[in-house]
Amino acid sequence: MLGAREELTPMLSQYLDLCEAHPDAVVMFQVGDFYEAFCEAAEEVARVCEVTLTKREDSTGTYPMAGIPIDNAASYLEALLDAGYRVAIADQVEEASEASGLVDRAVTQVITPGTVVDEELLSGATATYLGAVAGSGEETALATVDVSTGECQVTSGTERRMSEELDRLAPAELLRAPDAPDFELGFETMATDADPGTFEADAARETLSAYVAAPDSVVGSEAELRAVGGLLDYAEYTQGDDGPLEYVSRVRRYDPERSLQLDATAIRSLELFESRSPRSGDTLVEVLDETACALGRRRLASWLRRPSVDEGEIRRRHDAVAELLDRPMARETVREHLSEVYDLERLVSRVSRERANARDLRALKNTLDAVPEVKAALSEVESDPLRDLRDSLDELADVRELVGEAIRPDPPQEITEGGVVREGFDDELDEVRATEREGREWVSALEERERERTGIDSLDVGYTQVHGYYIEVTNPNLDRVPDDYTRRQTLKNSERFYTPELKRREDEILSASERADALEYEVFAEVRADVAEEVERLQTLADSLATLDVLTTFAAVAAANGYVRPEMGADSVEIEAGRHPVVERTRSEFVPNPAEFSAGHVAVITGPNMSGKSTYMRQVALIAVLAQAGSFVPARAARLPILDRIFTRVGASDDIAGGQSTFMREMAELTDILHNATEDSLVLLDEVGRGTSTTDGLAIARATTEFVHDEVGATTLFATHYHDLTELVEDLPDAFNLHFTVEKAEGEDGNPDVTFLHRVADGASSSSYGVEVAELAGVPPAVVERAREYVRESGAIPADANGGEGPDEAEMRTSSDDAPAGESDTSADAQAPTNGRASEGTLAAYVDGIESDEGAEGTTTTGAEADVLAELRELDVAQTTPLEALNALDDLKQRLDERDRNRD
Ligand SMILES: Nc1ncnc2c1ncn2[C@@H]1O[C@H](COP(=O)(O)OP(=O)(O)OP(=O)(O)O)[C@@H](O)[C@H]1O
């Protein structure tokens, strides 16, 4: 088609020019009320949007064509975005009636996943980011912008840190400077090849200078400068290349270290925003999201994604929540008024992009109306943070008044067809409108006058779009028509006429009406431009309202769910009667549990399947996240340290299936923890090692526990079914055992009936009740019985990773037991693992071998084993890649196997 360009019609040629200028996008070309695509693009559009593929025929040939209605474009555009396309919107930029030949068209917006601004395509709850990476190594920079609100941020650090930050923000579209690393990302994004030149320092400085007076002063390095420059240049391109985006009023530099680090794995496994299985129900954000407006909703997500590490800031948030909790009236009044607040950030950006219509301006006014009410509700507050917030609320009375006086209360969607500007706001407009009104009044009185003058009672005055005003006379009365009537139209039973005066009035009305519409648009655009001048003040207001919404939400949630203020800055985690904020909502009776973890201590948590280990560990982490985000926490009391990072490593079968082998992934995540956890971190390890053979898994679990204890010093909770691991605690001064208790009664069939108490207690558990859980889950009785036989035959030592030493009467509190739960069994537990110690070849024997350097009986540890153990101890896990770890394990295992063969 391109080859025959000169033979094309001017319109198709114009279309192709735009396609050439936007080679990475599908150009949707306005033709009247439709956006059309032609040729190959038409075929794609028809397929993706499920619209009919039609044909366009002109003097030069026949071309495929597919169109979507402009009025209803959002869902089609969404389908194109979802299918991985960028869409360039080519609008008619002059009135068809004014065009001398071909109507001029220009790309006014390139819609891409990271730069959508249309309300219908955006989610209110989460920000949609466009990201750009520049630099590499230690000096890697990441810049992000939310084009719908103008929030622009930049940060830098090591490649690893930036990769984590990317995971956390999950931009919908990512640009890379030529020198940027090719990250492996854990989320879906559109990779966009932006013009490499825009990432060069000089070009970037030039781009940024349109936003800030001294570009180099707002960024921390050249990499940051380049990332922001490339980013904003592309953002401008997508918004029609119309110069700088006014509503990006600041570029905020931040340091990810200044927030509690939660990588994508932690965010996922703690189920902050998404539940890991459809069954598991709610997420943390759902429990907390009682926000009144979209501003608060996004702020809440951002605080949860990035809880603070600034003790002062956390205290300020807690102070505010405490006072709002004490003032229910003020709180509810604030929330009520905040619910009238529109999405101010996006509204402001539409105003500034000249995309706001009159309804948007009225929404802005309604939002501003709420501000004095909110301030009044806070008039009595005493805490510093709330007083500061209240005082920072700018009522923007000037803007509110301007919009109130200029724009009608209930304007139409369209801004070019009148009905937008209030009377009394613009004299010229009022005059033109008066002329129009007078004309119309004259016409409406005409019928009466003409009936009187002609004596024709059935005479009608009417109007059609095509013929204009007319006087209609039925056929039987035609003889009474006066001389000054001129025939306009003949119908079956009547004739239509006009008079010179009617014609004059008609012209007057039409021209006044047209002029009024045009004037209204002009006045509207001026008002909008005046509002756009106040972008920064409006953004500051939006910021304060967002914060206030989240703080009142925290207070409302605390009031509804019985949360308490945590004391921050403690040395250790001390939680009295803590609860899991999400699980407690789905369970009718949730059992609160205490937590006491000194900094750097390792708790090995055992307990039967389903007893509550994972819930407990996550509950500790969620309480920390909530506290550092500024919320109160589900507990009777809590004293908490300020954590720098939370790591989670959950067992293989709990994992969402990824492309990687689950074991490889487990090891990669473990490596990450061992490398990066600090003394201020909280590490949750849930069944580490489960993804491989029992022997290897246990070895890894032991080595990991030792390493975390000796080298990392992070507060660690390790849930495991490797009961043998509980013995390790004896060798490690800062490690201790916890377990979950169950109640056992003898069932009618003589087998144990198990009730989960979900209660944590000191000491180790020695039973897993895997068989009982299987029975509870409905595994057929024959299988359950057979399993019980196997357990008995194995001398109470199960052969799988879920094993413990089998039901151990001494360890379990029976229902007739008088002792309080979790106490009577503790001392027995400590001995439990030594009961029934198995002979060589069993799992326990293997661990025995590992534990005793000298060899417990001289028979368990052979020379080969001792070598293997020595090597295992030598292994610097923190310096070992997952692949090396696998190879090392394989090697160790082979040597042990060889030893076994030699023995045979
Ligand atoms: N404190 C609690 N109060 C009430 N119910 C609880 C409590 N803790 C956990 N549960 C419920 O018990 C079930 C099992 O909990 P969880 O997954 O934490 O057990 P687990 O010990 O980690 O199990 P597994 O070893 O099989 O992974 C969950 O459905 C949860 O809702």
Automatic annotation (TrEMBL):
Source organism superkingdom: Archaea
Protein name: DNA mismatch repair protein MutS
InterPro entries in UniProt: DNA_mismatch_repair_MutS, DNA_mismatch_repair_MutS-lik_N, DNA_mismatch_repair_MutS/MSH, DNA_mismatch_repair_MutS_C, DNA_mismatch_repair_MutS_clamp, DNA_mismatch_repair_MutS_core, DNA_mismatch_repair_MutS_N, DNA_mismatch_repair_MutS_sf
Chain ranges of the DNA mismatch repair proteins mutS family domain: 681-697
Binding site for ATP: G607, P608, N609, M610, S611, G612, K613, S614
Keyword flag DNA-binding: yes
Function statement: This protein is involved in the repair of mismatches in DNA. It is possible that it carries out the mismatch recognition step. This protein has a weak ATPase activity.
Biased composition regions of type Polar residues, renumbered to the chain: 824-837
Stated family: Belongs to the DNA mismatch repair MutS family.
Keywords linked to the UniProt accession: ATP-binding, DNA damage, DNA repair, DNA-binding, Nucleotide-binding
SMART domains named among the record's database cross-references: MUTSac, MUTSd
Region of interest (Disordered), residue spans: 794-865
Biological source species: Halogeometricum luteum
